[in-house]
Amino acid sequence: MGETNKQVPVTVLTGFLGAGKTTLLNRILTEQHGKKYAVIVNEFGEQGIDNDLVVDADEEVFEMNNGCICCTVRGDLIRILSGLMKRADKLDAIIVETTGLADPAPVAQTFFVDQDVADRTKLDAIVTVADAVHLSTQLSDHHEAEEQIAFADVVLLNKIDLVDESGLEVVKERIKKINPFAKIIHTTKCGVSLSEILNLDAFNLKRILDTEPDFLTSDHDHEHDDDVTSLSFVSDTPLDMEKFQDWFSKLLQTKGQDILRTKGILDFTGENDRYVFQGVHMLMDASPMGKWPEGKERNSRLVFIGRNLESMNLKEGFENCKSA
Amino acid sequence: MKADSNKFPELNKTKFENRGKEFKLGIPVTNAITIGNSVAVGFGDGTVRIFRSGQISEVIKAHSGVVLSISKDGEDILTGGDDGRFLKISLDGEINEIANFGSRWVDHVTAYNGNLVCTSGNIVYLWMPNKKEPKLLEHESTIGGVAFDSKGRRLAVSRYGGVTLWKKDYSNKWSSSNLIWKGSHNKVIFSTDDRFLVTSMQENQLHFWRLKDKTDSFMSGYGAKVKSFAFVYDSKFLVTSGSNEAICWPFDGNGPEGRKPICLPYVGNKPVTFVEPFPNENAIFTGLSDGSVFLSEIEKSTNTIIIRSFTESEVTTIAVTEDCSSILIGDIGGNILWTSIWDEEEK
Question: Mutate which of B27, B199, B202, B317 to disrupt the A interface (most A C-beta within 10 Å)?
Fold first, then answer.
């Protein structure tokens, strides 16, 4: 995903029905005076949206014929974003609201796969609105709820006035176990400063360096196979680039359907630059991002979010990439 | 950030620019349609402007958003907009709203002999002459494009998974059959001899069906999505954008299968963004991402002349008047060139 000033940021709002997506949307639209937003809503939205430019979308998920088995995109978004880019009045941002049961992967993948979309817009962040009261049950009952947490850059944990402190801790732990990167913001009625959810540039590789996510090594208890969890690894020994590329590309090719998101900062033997990457299923954005800061320890850090991670021998695979 | 490595050589204005009229409107040009010796142009602010020889009309405030699609019915302009309106506009600027779908966009419009068609979402709305209510043709997914064949008896509707081919019998009943190919199909056109149907896809390729036996195949090798393509010279060639050359596939005989295309290169080596046939000639106008436009003979690639030098904005439309006397070029930056094709002495 290239960077130019002309790219219009796109914020994706996900979350289960009743979590408060529309409340958040209306909040954004009423508070940002003087900005021109386009809002793409799904046809099942119950409440009205108060904005000049509201576009109805159908959430059409298309498979791409590019040999990548889990590569799906949102066809309606490609069409609508391309149409919006022809407008004479320039937009400050685009907000995409998804239905409660939507999988965020096709939305995110659209920005990797479609060149026109990538040239003119950029995925700013995925913001997931979660209902503090019902999230635990939803996570157990619907894999879509897990995916929405797994893909989130920000989780707006809403309706916290309706749970007690220990209940809140349980929900927070559950979110962190699925997604250690996501920033969790507590709200009632989606009361949040807009600077915490808009213009985050969360998919920019530079931001991965800035935010220094929680790359702690973690040893999880064996989870139920279908649960989405995360695993992270750290190595102080530099990695062998060829070995890493071999292992990682094979891993994504064979297990990409179960690996929802990956992020990493890598230290390769003989390379002066830090390598940063982030991926959604099999799609990957990677680049050297300048030299390691002086006086700071060089190490490699890698996080996976997905299902059945225990079965992928990730630890062994990562260990084997260390330079001899 | 701009790459300067392949910068277009400094050129003086072309003779076409010198004798024509240039407009720097600053509004993205989205599409255009030739009506006789006039050209109607759609813009990203919802306006339509009509260019006649020697003059342009007043601005017609047609839509409140983008003019997403443009076509014609006889002497009238048809437009679809992202304000959900399907309009019929006379050359005098009189607007007649045929339908209004609110927040649902009108993505595609076309017509044949008084049969007016627009699409919104997954539905084709077809108004037959003298009928007030449209006939609704529903599809499983959002429509990527529509096209009538040359006799108006078949309507091709591209979508996810292939093309639905609607056929009208002599009692005006429509029935459909499916041409299936995996993936998302966008623009669709019939060859001018109605023997072939071609679609552009979400992937960087085109698909085609030979209609007599429904055999199909694809044309690939493109570096970008193919957004502009057209049949040239009685369907001898299909010319396409999507590469740094104009790719011309042979469609005479049994079509392009197993044959190589002719590739026409241009100065500057920039992506081709728009192709437009020169009527009744084996020649094309080619518009590039830097705004330059060339005229080339397909089988004599040395015969290429430059019509417009670069503007730094990608060419989004080229239209030639019916008498081949004038050409209109528009780009995403809102620059328009409206000029005569021939020198005074050549006429």
Answer: B202
Share of chain B above pLDDT 90, in %: 85
* CA A184 – CA A188 distance, rounded (Å): 13
Cβ-based neighbour number of residue A307 at 10 Å: 22
Among the partner-chain residues A4, A63, A83, the one whose CB lies closest to the CB of B105 is: A83
For A34, A84, A87, A94, the CA distances from A91, given in Å and listed in that order, are 11, 8, 8, 7
Query: How is residue B196 written in tokens?
Result: 């072939």
Question: pTM for the full model?
Answer: 0.89
pLDDT band at residue A43 using 50, 70 and 90 as cut-offs = low
Q: What is the pLDDT of residues A225-244, one digit of tens each?
A: 568 888 989 999 999 999 99
For position A64, what pLDDT does the model report?
83
A55-59, A169-173, B66-70, range with greatest mean pLDDT: B66-70
State the DSSP string of B243-280: SSEEEEEE-STT-STT-PPEEEE-TT-PPEEEEEEPTT
Closest to B142 (Cβ–Cβ): which among A58, A89, A115? A58
Judged on CB neighbours under 10 Å (0-12, 13-18, 19+), A18 is middle
Looking at the structure of chain B, the number of domains it has is 1
Percent of chain A with pLDDT strictly greater than 90 = 52
**How near does any CA of chain B get to the CA of A251, in Å?**
25
Domains of chain A (ranges plus CATH)?
Answer: 8-203 (3.40.50.300), 210-319 (3.30.1220.10)
The better pLDDT of the pair A223, B279 is held by B279
pLDDT of residue B5: 44
Average pLDDT (A158-186) is 92
Name the H helices within chain B.
15-19
Put residue A190 in one of left, alpha, beta given phi > 0 → left and psi -120 to 50 → alpha.
left
In a domain? residue B182: no
| C-beta of residue B137 within 8 angstroms of C-beta of residue B126 | yes
List residues of B whose CB lies inside 8 A of any A CB.
1, 26-28, 30, 43-45, 65-66, 68, 82, 103-105, 107, 121-122, 141-142, 160, 182-184, 201-203, 224-225, 332, 334
In a domain, B240, yes or no: no
Q: Which helix (H) or strand (E) holds A290?
A: strand A283-291
Strand partners, A230: A305
Q: Which of A50-64, B177-191, B198-212 has the lowest mean pLDDT?
A: A50-64
Domain range for B76 is 42-51+58-138
Q: Does residue B261 form part of some domain?
A: no
ipTM of the complex: 0.89
Q: Please tell me which of the candidates A65, A73, A79 has its beta carbon nearest to residue B142.
A: A79
Examine residue B297 and state whether it is found in any structural domain, yes or no: no
CB B66 within 8 Å of CB B74: no
The CATH number assigned to the domain holding B102 equals: 2.40.10.500
Pick the residue of A86, A110, A119 with the most B CBs within 10 A to test the interface with B by mutation.
A86
Contact list in A for residue B105 (CB cut-off 8 A) is: 55, 80, 83
- The pLDDT value given to residue A1: 42
C-alpha–C-alpha distance, residues A40 and A121, integer Å: 14
CA of B201 vs chain A CAs: smallest distance (Å): 10
Give the mean pLDDT of B121-133.
94
Q: Is A103 helix (H, G, I), strand (E, B) or coil?
A: coil
If DSSP codes are grouped into helix, strand and coil, which group holds residue A297? coil
